[in-house]
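If your schedule permits, I should be very grateful for your opinion on a structural question. Kindly check, if you would, that the fold set down in the tokens agrees with what the sequence suggests. Thank you for your consideration; the sequence and its tokens are set out here:
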Amino acid sequence: IGATYARFSTRFQQSIGDQVRTLYEEAERERIFIPLENVFFDTAARGYSSRRPGLNELRTVLEERQIDVLLVFATNRLFRKTYKSLQFVEEEVVERGIRCIFVKSKIDTADEKRWRLFLQISAAMDESVVSMYADHVRAAHEGLFLRGMVCTSLPMGYTGEVVAGEETKRKRPRRRIIIDENQARYVRKAFSWFADDGITIQSIAQRLNGDPEAPSPPKSPSGTWNHRSVRYLLANPCYRGEWAYGRKETKWQSKKDYAKQVERKKPLKVEFFEHLRIVTDETWYAAHARLLENESQAGRRSKDGDKTSRPRVLNGLFWCPTHNRRLYVGGGFGRNMFCKDCRASLAAARPLFSELNRELALKITCEKIAELIQADNDLVARVIHSCEEAMTAGQQVDPSELKRHRAEEQRLRRRIEFTVRNLGDTHQDDQLATDLVNDLDRQRSIVLAEITRLEAIRGTEVTVPTKLEIRAALEELGKTLTKAASGVADEDAPLVRHIIKMVTGGRIDLYQQGERRPKRGWLQGRFRVKLLRLVLDRCSGRHPAPEDDAIELTLDYRQPVPFVAEADRAWALYKEDKRLCDIADLLRCSRSKVTKLMKYAAEQRGETLEDGRKRRHRIPGKAETIPLYQRIADEVQRLLDEQFLMHEIATRLQCDINTVTKAVAFWNESRGLEIPDGRARRKSLKRKKSPKDQSDGD
């Protein structure tokens, strides 16, 4: 009793019937009976794979030893890997006492002395033939690619046009790649939304899914747009006319038994087709620069969806100047940011001891910049004047600036090429080199985006914005930042980040202030405000020279003290030579609180409080101010006559109950009367408690 196994590789082949017929003919010659249930086969299955339905069924029959002979059409029908073919025949077949015949390869395990050698040679040839065929197929595809023909799947926005007189190997008409205008307009919309309007990738996906006429993303099982499919569209360089063949190659993972797409160091072929351009270079590079910027904000999403206490808008903008590295998100529930190098140091030696609260940092930064834009009219006038001068006299692109960016792009390109050629010997070296190449490529893309922007505006007509337009832009910026101070919505986050990045130059240096103890210190941010750059960018898309920006700003990132307003008022009265007791009366608080307010106000202003005894001696008119208990004495006595309780009188007059007691004593002593006993008075009253206390007791 025997069994057969047959296989073909692709869905375009149909050779199972021919293989099985040949195997039955051989079985008839060898006088082997093969039941129909012992005919095993796999369709459209790769020879590299070990997990195939038909092969697994054959393994079960072999384990149970239900057959005596296994017939296979050829060695390449079993496996395309030499060691797998040898292992299967040796362990699964021969060691169980079963004979194996490869009909077309003329290999029979009954030939005990030579079958291993013949099988090894034949399997090795099968494996090498695959790579040879692959080279031939790639060469044919490269020829089609250079002619602009369809040789692989097309991205959204393109379709195939039939070429008359040319057919494929399967007798189908050959097609040339052209732009599909119905889909291309949605590609242009996506780029415009992302690069010009600053809409998030998730919002773009929602807009495309909400449009019934919008095409589905290619190769999407669900047919709906998501973050990944939109990002793939925005990052595809073919939309600017740059097409590539062979960006990735298929690597078979033998241990995991599946194929994996691996990025090549460089594509096999790169060609520029201007007739296949859908978006301009300026738009594509602007979108690419923003995609790279989004990568710097990457991180684990919050599970509870709380974005108010963990805003991502300022991620990557705060720096530790001592170690020259960005702050990382961490702390309790990811609400703070810190420097990794500082945290690794001893507490006493940390340049940045305190952590930066993300919500507080966004609130203070937005409020201060909005205040700077809106509140200072003189500053607005200076900005408008500078804008008009820059737009009138220096709007054309500076050739030296364009030359500097091109030199920087060439320097980065040379570093990338050098790093790729010298990857290292160990896996760790490879990983470090890969990270460095990715970072250099990110920098190069940003420089290319700036070069493209400068070249795009070089030939455009110069227009000077009016004062009204500039004021409207400033007002809009102020409103956007004021709204962002209380929380940033997803649709506003890109615009807010762009504004802050333009104003700060993309970097805010932090310095430690206060004590190096928990909750005793805070971080101070310093940066140069580039308002002129921001306004020109909003009004005309042009940037001024670096020397035009000269406003230094310092921000203290610390929680506001609740009694700041009281401290400011107390300090103003102190500077008016008011005595502390008079200040306490005017603020309606105790003298001990006034002392605390004065110490806080002096510390904030960097001043030293005057000695109290010297100050009292210096201030004239010590007795001119009538004490509070004397001023309210008549009113207190009137309320006592009306049968009010002492604490009710204190509440009504907004003072302390001790002040009321002192006012009663003063009123009686000033008239030569005996001071009444409070307990005796309370017993004589008909009402012992206030109405509120009585209701609580009931």
Notes: The chain has a mean pLDDT of 82.
